[in-house]
Amino acid sequence: MTTLAAxxxxxxxxxxxxxDIAAQANSVFTADAIKLDANENPFAPLVQGPLSQRINxxxxxxxxxxxxxxxxxxxxxxxxxxxxxxxxxxxxxxxxAFCRPEVDAVSICQPTFSAYAHFARLQGARxxxxxxxxxxxxxxxxxxxAARADPSLKLAFICSPNNPTGNPVPAxxxxxxxxxxxxxxIVLDEAYIEFSELESLAPEATRRDNLVILRTLSKAYGLAxxxxxxxxxxxxxxxxxxxxxxxxxLPSVSIEAALAAxxxxxxxxxxxxxxxxxxxxxxxxKLLESSPIVRKVRSGGGNFLFLxxxxxxxxxxxLPQPRHPRPLSPxxxxxxxxxxxxxxxxxxxxxxxxxxYGWTKNRRAAAKWCATPRRRVSRSRLISTGPSRxxxxxxxxxxxxCSTR
Length: 405
Ligand SMILES: Cc1ncc(COP(=O)(O)O)c(C=O)c1O
Known about the structure:
The longest helix is centred in the C-terminal third of the chain and has 23 residues, at 267-289. The protein is globular and about 70 Å long. 44% of the residues are buried. By secondary structure, it is α/β, with parallel strands linked by helices. It is 38% helix and 12% strand. It starts with a helix and ends with a helix. The protein folds into two domains: 4-21 and 58-262, Aspartate Aminotransferase, domain 2; 269-404. Helix 8 (202-207) links the parallel strand 5 and strand 6. The strands form two sheets. It has a seven-stranded mixed beta sheet with strand order 1-7-6-5-4-2-3, sandwiched between helices. The chain has a two-stranded antiparallel sheet with strand order 8-9. It is built from 16 helices and nine strands. The structure holds pyridoxal-5'-phosphate. Residues 86-88, 113, 159, 163, 189, 191, 216, 218, 224, 229 line the site of pyridoxal-5'-phosphate (PLP). The site of pyridoxal-5'-phosphate has 12 residues, from helix 4.
């Protein structure tokens, strides 16, 4: 019987022979083994210290210990999960495995994470852009209706909690879409779920033909630089998506970092940090709510906040300007300044993230600016919430308020 995944996959993916990689067996070699099959360098690596561990060898494509550890973390079996270079890479391989250029389509619900449309366009797939409701909640009925109108729709992305709004999508709404669109793969991005009150649908995805979950260690586990994420779903679908990966996708040091971060001894530290980030998010939300320039603060469930302000353009103009501004689409102009400002510059991170806010660079200059409204601090940046940063945020907001009047 042909599975749904096989029916939807690109013919090129179905025809691909999986890589025959000897590094699969890395774990059985001792450090001093003489290994000649992959033309590696036999000497100890030139780097020293913890980074040097077997780095002269190619890593296993899907290292079994990490696969087991991540599977246990997400409540699924190892074969239900393919480890990727961050959730970004999982989006990319899904699009490449299932979308034929200029034929197939993906759907997204705006405003949402930009990578879905980015990777779809890179592949030459069409992007159906639907809209969230006025209050930024997901509307399953209109999503289903629009999706049904396009028979070439292969992937439908739902982000919960949604970036940038933070709004959660209830599990019942996601499953309604899954049931209503049996010939489309619903990709539920749970990148921020650890900061929310939502239950993961990862175990459910293993029992469904057309539901895939994305998870990442970049956010809740603080490993953005290691680039470790995964796609979770039924065995056939995951095996097909994995064919779109390069032969050695995961750097050895990232594998080691992920295993160390997920070790049981780090569990309580992780949980404490999540609790702190959530508490700080709420504290900061209250502070921002009292600002006269903020109309509404949404703190639905990410490690960030989404601000609605009356005059996003005016506020954005007062924020430290990116060095490489690019024009804003009318869509983005409508969302509010925080997200808008962040979206302004893809090349440098000079931005106000929609998460919490603290000065990182050039604190002295920032403080001076706060004391003297109307002066711009070009090298200062604002970043995610940290416990000590709320004070500077208040100063920052009041300085904007002063200069707005
Ligand atoms: C909703 C969402 N999904 C996926 C990602 C990508 O995360 P990763 O670092 O795992 O590639 C991000 C990153 O900001 C995100 O906001």
